[in-house]
Structures are given as structure tokens and as C-alpha cells.
UniProtKB/TrEMBL annotation:
This is EthD domain-containing protein. Belongs to the tpcK family. It comes from Rhynchosporium graminicola. Residues 19-111 form the EthD domain. InterPro entries: Dimeric_a/b-barrel (IPR011008), EthD_dom (IPR009799).
Amino acid sequence: MSAPAGKTVHLTILMNKLETLTHQAFHTYWTHEHPKVWFEMAIVKKHVLKYTQFHVDEKVSEGLRAAGLPIAEYDGGVQIWGRSVEDLMAVFQDPEYLAKVVPDEQKFLKRSEAKMMIGWDEVLWSCEERSNSA
């Protein structure tokens, strides 16, 4: 699969923390320690255009859940953009990723429960784009 012309491929991975970690410990490790391993890989620098983390606010989620809203049961999500599916899959098949990143992920997340979505973004409105063109 390739994204339509002019679009980048967007991979989202939804994840849950290990039961042995507090939410704070999960968010702290993922924010400050895991990137040290992830961003040192040459293949990431070659193929990843953008990387963001989405950290779920557990207290807000609990309140919304109590109000009857259907809150997804995840602790966070990573979003990774690349030029093609092949570029992104090359990252996840790289021997350095398998040797360094996978063991690091096992320190803070349940890899077997992670769920992926892959596709492209259709930006229909963006405050960022509006302020850049003003």
C-alpha cells in the first residue's frame, strides 16, 4: 500500500503499559528513556519523517468513562510517519530494532496487546496551517 500522491504514510500503534508499572512510571519511561534507544538507530533517521507520542490522561478517561462515554482501553499511542509502508516496515524488521528496541519496549509495554492502524492523513482543517498562511 502506498499513500495517495503527495501524502505520507501514517502508522498509529495503540498500547498498554505493563501491569507492574504505575501510569506515571509508564509515561516517564516512555517519554524520557525509550526515545534514547529509538532515536539512536540509523534506520529511524533514514525512514521516519515524524514521531509523536499520545499519552492518555487516566483520571480524565475515568471521569469520561463514568459519564458513560466509550473510552478506548489503551494507555497511549505512538504515531510514526514515513514516505512508504515499505520504509516503515524496514524499521520494524531491522536487526538493530529487533536487538535493541524490542527488549526496551518489553520494559514498559505489553507488546502482544499493541494494535496498529496504517494509512494516511487527510487534513481538512488545521489551526497550524491557518496561522502559517496568515
